[in-house]
Amino acid sequence: MSDHFIRLYNETEEPGEAFFLESGRIFFYPNTADKYAINGRKLIFGATEILMSRLDGTPTRRIETAITTTDSAIKRMPSEKLIAGLENFSFVLNVAMVTARQVLLTNQIISANLNLLEGDAKKTRQISIDYYLIVKRLREEFNKRKYPWLNEIVKKFEPNLTCKKGEAYHRSSEPVKITETHNLSDKMIEYDRGSVICEENTTGEEMYILQSGTIEVVIDGNSVATIEEPGSVSGEMALLLGEKRTATLRAKNGVVLTKITKADLKEAAARQQGLMKGIALSLAKRHYYNVLKIQNISEQAMEQAIESEASEQSKVPQIQLARKDLAALQKHLLDATHGKDVSFMEDLISSIR
C-alpha cells in the first residue's frame, strides 16, 4: 500500500471498534473491483457490523476493507462506546446518516454493475431470490408450528449457495421496519385510496411508518412494488440525507401512516424509545446485504465471462445450476407435504405445483 494511505480494517476481521472521522476521507472496498468514498467532518463509521452483532445478535465480521489517507484525522472508538452512544440523539443520528450514505453509495454500485449483466445472469438472480423466499417461509412456519419435517427441509436446503445469494439480493431491498410507534399516535395520518403520499424527484422532509393498508411504489410512472407490512418505513433516506425521493408513493387502498418530519425527528425519538436505534440497525442491515449483493454480482459477472469463453461441455452455466437447485427444493417440498395437512401454506404449495 502507498505511504499516503492507511488501512483501518480488512474484510473478514472481527469488528472490535468503530471510528470517528474528525476530517478527511475514507475509502471502502466491498471487493477488489469496486470502491466508494465518504468524506466530511465529525462522522462515525465502521458501525454496521457492530450494530448487527450487538443489537441484532447476528455475529458479523467486517464485510469490506476500509482505507484512509494519511492527512485524515481519525479517532478509534471501542464498540462499547459506540453502543452506549446510541442512547444520545445526536450520536445515533450521526451513525444513521453515515450508514444511510453507505446504503446510497452501494446502491449506485449495484445499479451500475447490474447493467453489465446479461439476461441469464439477471434470471439467475431472480431464481436465487425465489429459492430463498421458499426457505424463508419454511423457516417461519417451523418457528410457529415446530413440525420436525419442516425443520428437516430447512436444514437440508438453507446452507445452499443459491439460498445465500438469494438472501443477499432480497434483504438488500427490504425496507426499514419500526414496530413500536404507540407513543406517536398523534402523528398518524389517513390517506384515501389513490392519494399521493409523496412524489418522485421532490425533496424529502418527512418519513412514513405504515400502520395499515397498502402503498403502491411508482417509478417513472410504472408500478414497481407494494408495501403492506405494518412497521415498514418509507422516506428515511431522503429525510436523513436531504436527497430527492426516488419514487412516488400512492395509497392503494385506505392507508394509515405515522408521519415524522425532519423538524420533529428529535422530539419523536425522545417520545418513542428505540426509534432512531431501530432506524440505524435497519440501515446497517441494508448496508451489509448491499455489500454481499455487490460481491455476488461481481462473482456472477466473472462467471459469465468465463462461461462465454468456455465450451458448453466444459462449463455448466450458473442459470442451469440455480434452476436445478430450485427444482430440487420444490420437488422435495411437494414430496414431504404429500398427504399432510398443509393448509397453513397452501399458497406456497399451489405456487410450485
Q: What are the SSEs and their pairings?
A:
Layout: E1 5-9, E2 17-29, E3 36-40, E4 43-45, H1 48-54, E5 65-69, E6 73-78, H2 79-85, H3 89-114, H4 119-145, H5 148-157, H6 161-171, E7 188-191, E8 196-198, E9 206-212, E10 215-219, E11 222-227, E12 233-234, H7 236-241, E13 248-251, E14 255-261, H8 265-271, H9 275-309, H10 318-337, H11 346-352
Antiparallel strand pairs: 1-5, 2-3, 2-4, 2-5, 2-6, 7-14, 8-13, 9-12, 9-14, 10-11, 10-13
Overview of this protein structure:
The protein is an alpha+beta fold. It has 3 domains: 5-114, Jelly Rolls (Sandwich), CATH 2.60.120; 119-174 and 282-352; 182-272, Sandwich (Jelly Rolls). It has 11 helices and 14 strands. The strands form 3 sheets. Strands 1, 2, 3, 4, 5 and 6 form a 6-stranded antiparallel β-sheet that branches. It has a 4-stranded antiparallel β-sheet with strand order 7-14-9-12. Strand 10 and strand 11 form a beta hairpin. Helix 6 (161-171) crosses helix 9.
